[in-house]
Amino acid sequence: MKLQPDRLDVQSILAYGPGWVGLGNNGVAEKIEHSIVIGSRGEKFDWNCTRFEQLTAEHFAQLAQTRPELVIFGSGTRLRFPPPAFLRVLMEQRIGLETMDTLAACRTYNILAGEGRQVVAALLIES
């Protein structure tokens, strides 16, 4: 049974591997080798961190500014949860957050974006 359309009309993740993700939008592909935030409404900006330990509350405040209904946080090569204090601004604005390793976050983002959800993926790409 087919569950996804052949082509997404939103920014999507075409491929991924250790240390990189391949983004696509309107037939244009781009290989990204640094942490990035992408959204189903076209949001795309660098997320200035190379290690989980560098994350701060400000990183998550940036995500809240995009006003998604859900944030998918890709925590790098393994599952790690940010401190609850970092998530305060998301909770105050009633924005959901799901944490998973970055590769799982890529897959989840594509599914939710393809369903038309207002979702943002914050992908920690470790060097």
From TrEMBL:
UniProt cross-references to SUPFAM superfamilies, sorted A to Z? MTH938-like
UniProt xrefs under InterPro entries:
MTH938-like_sf, NDUFAF3/AAMDC
User: Could you identify this protein by its name?
Assistant: Mth938-like domain-containing protein
- The scientific name of the source species is Polaromonas jejuensis
State the organism's lineage: Bacteria, Pseudomonadati, Pseudomonadota, Betaproteobacteria, Burkholderiales
